[in-house]
Design goal:
The chain has 2 helices and 3 strands; from the N terminus they run H-H-E-E-E. A 3-stranded antiparallel β-sheet has the order 1-3-2, with helices on one face. It has 105 residues and is an alpha+beta fold. Helix 1 runs antiparallel to helix 2.
């Protein structure tokens, strides 16, 4: 399989981290901004992923949660071709919030 058509977790992870930093940066949790932040993060991730010119369809999910001590548990499952498909989850945090972004192709 050609390297160009593989899902490279490190590459995707860097795109996600840059997108989250670019959108939220050093901001504090503000409920009124969460909807816009999540939309912008997903849009930036998709934009940068499509610039890779790989033959994939991408699914990007983003959750932003205020740090209050509450628990958050997630799970996902996929049926795919392990030689070409993949998944990447990035957890980003600052003093006031968590941001969890998942990319599947």
């Amino acid at each position: 399989m050609a390297k160009e058509s593989n899902f490279v977790v490190e590459e995707v992870s860097n795109i996600v981290k840059e997108s989250v930093e670019g959108v939220i940066g050093g901001g504090s949790y503000q409920p009124i901004k969460v909807t816009q932040w999540t939309s912008n993060i997903v849009e930036q991730c998709l934009s940068h992923l499509t610039e890779l010119k790989k033959p994939f369809k991408y699914i990007v999910n983003c959750v932003i949660m205020q740090k209050t001590g509450a628990g958050l548990h997630t799970a996902s499952s996929c049926f795919w071709d392990n030689t070409t498909d993949g998944s990447c989850t990035v957890r980003w945090e600052n003093k006031t919030m968590y941001c969890i972004v998942n990319v599947d192709n």
